[in-house]
Write a structure and sequence with these properties.
11 strands; NAD(P)-dependent_oxidoreduct; binds NADP nicotinamide-adenine-dinucleotide phosphate; alpha/beta; globular; 17% strand; Epimerase_deHydtase; aldehyde dehydrogenase (NAD+) activity; 271 residues; 9 helices; Rossmann fold
Length: 271
């Protein structure tokens, strides 16, 4: 079984690739010019936006794990281009050259409405306005309607194995003026790999699934865990469910996180 991973140089993809290669999975990685892949993975040079490079990437694979995306920018055009146009081009390449392959796409828990009355459920209607979640919802729709064998994994805030993501919390709070009590559903890098592994068995075929651990944490707590405390606030929190997802559907497939809380990750030294 050969798997194509897109986004293999990113925070999530580089760790996923490492874990899969170490587990003996035959991995192919689509990377842009000048970028490398971990030893043991097959490098295919290309770009989501360059359709001509995608045939070689997808031919002969039994599954695609589509992680490549753009979201750490304020350039909305770039976000839409990569996340929607890029995904459309990848879907077209898979339809043409690997139509039997299982297509697993990473989406985000940020698609759920900020003023929701409960943690996001997969069947909730979503109306994201910001470019990142809106482009992901549009890409989800393309994939759901593609006729391919798809699954969509809506990831919580991914952290762990030295990715530095938790350390980005204080600057993010400052930039977006987020309330320190805002609480996010989280998922450790090792459990992203576990969830993708489960999706590769077919357990999530034709499904949208929230991927999160057992205990959300506030921005305030996350910042303290990485030794960069942020200021507390006495203001009320107006959107308590923003960033929160319900993880029961994933549990119904038999998934149990190896790292159930960020506090356990801290104790184990795997933040
Ligand atoms: N990290 C999280 O907390 C989190 C939470 C929810 C969902 N997700 C989802 O998980 C996925 C991975 O996130 P991440 O944190 O690993 O992102 P990241 O660190 O920003 O990495 C993005 C990856 O996408 C690649 N990429 C971007 N545009 C491309 C293009 N046109 N052609 C080919 N490759 C392209 C980048 O390649 P270059 O190295 O060449 O730039 C990089 O490998 C994304 O789909 C994201 O929406 C992440």
């Amino acid at each position: 079984m050969t798997i194509l991973i897109t986004g293999g140089t990113g925070l999530v993809g580089s760790r996923l690739l490492r874990q899969f290669v170490d587990a003996g999975v035959d991995c192919r990685a689509l990377v842009r010019p000048g970028k490398e892949v971990p030893a043991g993975a097959t490098r295919v040079e290309g770009d989501l936006l360059d359709a001509a490079t995608l045939q070689q990437a997808v031919e002969g694979v039994s599954a695609i794990v589509h992680l490549a995306a753009v979201f750490r920018t304020q350039n909305d055009d770039e976000i839409w281009r990569a996340n929607l146009d890029g995904t459309k081009k990848l879907i077209a390449a898979v339809k043409a050259h690997a139509p039997q392959a299982r297509f697993i796409m990473a989406s985000t828990g940020l698609v759920y409405d900020a003023n929701a009355t409960h943690p996001g459920l997969e069947e909730d209607e979503t109306h994201p306005t910001l470019a990142y979640p809106a482009s992901k919802i549009a890409a989800e729709k393309e994939l759901r309607e593609s006729g391919l064998n798809w699954s969509i994994l809506r990831l919580g805030f991914v952290y762990g194995d030295g990715d530095g993501h938790l350390a980005s919390v204080p600057p993010i709070v400052a930039r977006f003026k987020w309330h320190p009590a805002k609480t996010f559903s989280l998922i450790h890098q090792r459990d992203v790999a576990g969830a993708v592994e489960l999706a590769l068995t077919g357990a999530m075929d034709g499904q949208v699934v929230n991927i999160c651990d057992d205990a959300p944490a506030s921005l305030y707590e996350m910042a303290r865990l990485v030794g960069s405390p942020i200021e507390a606030s006495a203001e009320p929190l107006v959107d308590p469910w923003m960033g929160r997802m319900d993880g029961s559907k994933l549990r119904s497939f038999g998934f149990s996180p190896k790292v159930p809380t960020v506090y356990q990750a801290s104790r184990e030294g795997i933040l």
